[in-house]
Amino acid sequence: MNRPKKLFLIDALGAFVSALCLGYLLVRFEHLFGMPKNVLYVLASIAIGFSINSIASWAFAKESWRRALRIIAIANLLYCCITVVLVLYYWQYLTALGLAYFMIEIILVVLLSYAEFRNSLVFRVHLDKK
User: Fold this and answer.
1) Distance, C-alpha 105 to centroid of its chain
2) For residue 92, what is the DSSP state?
3) Fewer Cβ close by (within 10 Å): the C or N end of the chain?
């Protein structure tokens, strides 16, 4: 379970970095990104919650780590869906830099979710074969 455990930490770190970017950098330079502060604070709060959940899963998920990893992957994909909706809703206010930030974040989170899903299934197959 060493590799999936690393995914929990990668997810936690990524969510924490997102929270810092959203809750501090993008808020501080709102005029450069275009997303309203109140929306950024909500997204940052979600990211903090995800980071805490991933750390808790890393620390406490023993037998149910596959389920925890899938739940985190699904939550990440839902976060991406929410972000896409917000980007479309605030499209007229977003700058090119704002669009670039959110597109890069979405791509990274989708790739991480894919790795989480894949690892939760691959390790199960390997264990079932033994």
Assistant:
1) 8
2) T
3) C
Collect all residues with Cβ–Cβ distance below 8 Å to 73 and sequence separation of at least 6: 112, 113, 114, 116, 117, 120
d(CA 32, CA 127): 49
State pLDDT tens for residues 1-55. 457 789 999 999 999 999 999 999 999 999 999 999 999 999 999 999 999 999 9
> Alpha-carbon distance 72 to 58, whole Å?
11
Q: Of 44, 57, 35, whose CA–CA distance to 16 is shortest?
A: 44
At residue 90, the 3 state secondary structure works out as coil
